Amino acid sequence: MVLTLPRKFLLLGSGELGKEFVIAAQQLGNSIVAVDRYANAPAMQVADKCEVISMLNGDDLEAVIEKHQPDFIIPEIEAIRTEKLLEFEQRGITVIPTAKATNFTMNRDRIRELAHTQLGIRTAKYAYATSLDELVTAAQDIGFPNVVKPIMSSSGKGQAVVYQPEEVATAWNYAIKNSRGDSQKIIVEEFIQFETEITLLTIKQWNAPTIFCPAIGHRQENGDYQESWQPAKISNELLVEAQAIAQKVTDSLGGAGIFGVEFFVTKDEVIFSELSPRPHDTGMVTLISQNLNEFELHLRAVLGLPIPQIELLTPSASAVILAHEYADRVSYTGVAEALIENVELRLFGKPDARPGRRMGLALAKGINVEEARKKALQAASKVKVV
Ligand SMILES: Nc1ncnc2c1ncn2[C@@H]1O[C@H](COP(=O)(O)OP(=O)(O)OP(=O)(O)O)[C@@H](O)[C@H]1O
Ligand SMILES: NCC(=O)N[C@@H]1O[C@H](COP(=O)([O-])[O-])[C@@H](O)[C@H]1O
Ligand SMILES: [Mg+2]
Fold first, then answer.
1. N or C: which end of the chain has fewer CB within 10 A?
2. 341 C-alpha vs ligand 3 centroid, how far in Å?
């Protein structure tokens, strides 16, 4: 099939990741309708059109699809009524990477069952619970410490490390309170004592082999990403193993697009954690590190455009800029101080702030990863959300 541009994209979720995707898509002349649950979301600020709806509501989704008739649906968050995406796909709209992939990764249990039970991939030991009583038993079975997470959440929301039985009830309440959507189910996982963790950006193409970006290392706090760097330190042997696992899972989900496949890395093992069927937050480091960033790669994979080579230009790092207070208007200070040599900023333009909300990012290049990390952290620390 001969590709003609522009194509029309409907972006479901309009945060910082969506904003960069819109920019990449528009650079090749495409048009984008940005959708989210609140007005003036980052991607809406650069998109052609926008819609504010509940993406968990099937009727709302139906209405925007009817109105805009997109060629592609690009999910940007997990919390979407994905059963509806299966319907749209059957009606001939291309859902990226596939409606099945969004459906399987919307909740932690489906993707875990696929990876572990169906594909036989090693994961942390895990169990599910739908009541506090069940969680008490499950936590005993898994052992302590363990990690309790809502079945539907992201960026560490509702997640807690539980060190002893007395903490189980608090973890249950916290998980249920911070669960997205209507689910009352949690997963409890064995705590993996990893040396490092990586995201392997995996690009699945319609008519070409799957390719990988150099591994990205990252550090998380309370389940949310604080800094990432590329390349990650990992032996070739473990990297090859991670690539094989990423290929296996993404093959089984099908379609085309970029996936962020997350692994825990121990001394002699890579352990599959989870994956996003879309650009990954830790992958924002590629905005500075690679010849093609993760958003450009996603776009090219979606449109079936060539990706001749992925090149790591220089060791690089990203560090997040978080809000510390509630605010219904946002300004930033310290920008001039942050912008030293080989540093860039992305200030997302989120209309309001809450403690812990990611509001921006510092990106830095260095002669090595250590220098890049130091610069990115330093730059991020200069910028204050007020
Ligand atoms: N079983 C575990 N053992 C040790 N650490 C864990 C475990 N599960 C999660 N973590 C830590 O918490 C982080 C976030 O976990 P996870 O990726 O499952 O959450 P998430 O809410 O889906 O985050 P995101 O949406 O940002 O990817 C991990 O990157 C890791 O640092
Ligand atoms: N780990 C997933 C992730 O980073 N998702 C990114 O955060 C946005 C939500 O931010 P918000 O909660 O500040 O609105 C999402 O829209 C996406 O861009
Ligand atoms: Mg994760």
1. N
2. 31
